[in-house]
Amino acid sequence: MNPAAPEKAPARKPALSEKAGRFTESVIREMTRLAQRYGAVNLAQGFPDFPAPAEIKQAAQEAIARDINQYAITWGAKPLRDAIAEKIARTQGVAIDPEREITVCCGSTEAMMSAMMAVINPGDEVVIFEPFYENYGPDAILSGAAPRFVKLQPPGSATGDEWTFDRDELAAAFGPRTKAIILNTPNNPTGKVFRRDELEFIRDLCVRWGVFAITDEIYEHILYDGAQHISMAAIEGMRDLTITINGMSKTYSVTGWRVGWAIAAPEITAAIRKVHDFLTVGAAAPLQQAGAVALRLPESYYAKLAADYLVRRDRILAILEPAGFRCFKPRGAYYVMTDISGFVPRCGTDDVSFARYLVENIGVAVVPGSSFYNDPRDGSQQVRFTFCKTEQTLASAEERLAKLRV
Ligand code: PLP
């Protein structure tokens, strides 16, 4: 027998992971690929198309030139951890120990996954507000958690101009099996910024049931109309029950750097650090050095960031509303959820066919609303636009979307 000859086909193929079969590829990142294929303006994925701040690019270049090119300490280079601790003390009044309470990860995406894998046991339930950032679904599946979804109701006559949740519905989602609630504020995709009284209501449930709050705060500096970001860790009684997830991507316009972190009490951090170490070892060492420079930028940097985003937010609303979209005005983050029922059935029958129509015929890529809901029917009349884009990009989208009016 020729030893190089292929053997017979196996009697049966090895099975793939059951977990991996339970979720689809990211719709958001798929829309970016479609945008490239059709030459569409990409208002789907939330990455800025304008430059990152010069001083932090310089810091990254210098770090590479200084040969900071080997593994950093697995849970994060000390200068970055020190800067993270200083910043959360400065902005939220929360004192943390950079030696025992921070894990620097490959983006807040990895920080969320590491945090969930560090606290979840099979059968644990995790409360998630929906619509939700699409990663939380697969995060729950991969960590073995059973998600319990609680609706955020869109602004309307009964709810004023804010997305709100029903307090009884939230309370009913908590129970003896609840391990954590995932809270994203400012929120993607709704733009909701959770108020102090809402956070305190959630705190009371967390304390009553012994539940962690895992809070994704990566849009903390992108706020409008006087909205204020309050970290759950700053709410009395929540410091040691909160795992705060944050990162450089949105605040410093460096989504490709992949630097994020998790902040949690020492015992929780010890578990997160172990998971993180064996998942990725560490985030890019020279970019962590640049992170230490970024987090020490003066207050004026954050004021300008928010002011520039306010201009973009008002610009996108002035594009979308005349084009026929009913907009849910965001108070934070850089997305607008819109109601598309005015275009059905002329431009499609639901969010997915409408998004296809937009990318193929109009030349604008958006994210179908269903990708933010557990039951796709709940998002079938919504699509999400991002506006972290230059005036040139937004103007080009305006020109194309005007074609929808005919
Ligand atoms: N969390 C939310 C709510 C997001 O919207 C995004 C990106 O869009 C991320 C996390 C990803 O962050 P990172 O680039 O730090 O992994």
Query: In oligomeric terms, what are we looking at?
Result: single chain
Task: Identify the strand order in the major beta sheet.
Answer: 2-9-8-7-6-3-4-5
- How far apart the termini lie comes to 71 Å
Number of helices: 12
Bound small molecules, by name, code or SMILES, are: pyridoxal-5'-phosphate
By helix and strand content, what is the structural category? alpha/beta
Mean pLDDT: 95
What is the global morphology?
Answer: globular
Low-confidence stretches: none
The portion of residues forming beta strands comes to 15-25%
Q: Please state the CA-atom Rg, rounded to the nearest Å.
A: 22 Å
Please specify the SSE layout and strand pairing.
Elements: H1 27-38, E1 41-42, H2 54-65, H3 78-92, E2 102-105, H4 107-119, E3 125-130, H5 136-143, E4 146-153, E5 164-165, H6 167-173, E6 178-184, H7 196-209, E7 212-216, E8 242-247, E9 260-263, H8 266-280, H9 285-294, H10 299-323, E10 326-328, E11 335-339, H11 351-362, E12 364-365, E13 367-368, E14 382-386, H12 391-401
Parallel strand pairs: 1-12, 3-4, 3-6, 6-7, 7-8
Antiparallel strand pairs: 2-9, 4-5, 8-9, 10-11, 11-14, 13-14
Helix pairs in contact: 2-9, 3-9, 4-5, 4-8, 10-12
The protein binds pyridoxal-5'-phosphate.
Pyridoxal-5'-phosphate binds at residues 46, 107-109, 133, 184, 188, 216, 218, 247, 249, 255, 260.
Question: What does this entry look like structurally?
Answer:
There is one protein chain. This protein is α/β, with parallel strands linked by helices. It contains twelve helices and 14 strands. The protein has helices spanning about 25-40, 55-65, 80-90, 105-120, 135-145, 165-175, 195-210, 265-280, 285-295, 300-325, 350-360, 390-400; strands at about 40, 100-105, 125-130, 145-155, 165, 180-185, 210-215, 240-245, 260-265, 325-330, 335-340, 365, 365-370, 380-385. Helix 2 runs antiparallel to helix 9 (about 285-295), helix 4 packs parallel to helix 5 and helix 10 (about 300-325) runs parallel beside helix 12. The structure holds pyridoxal-5'-phosphate (PLP). Pyridoxal-5'-phosphate binds near residues 108, 249 and 255.
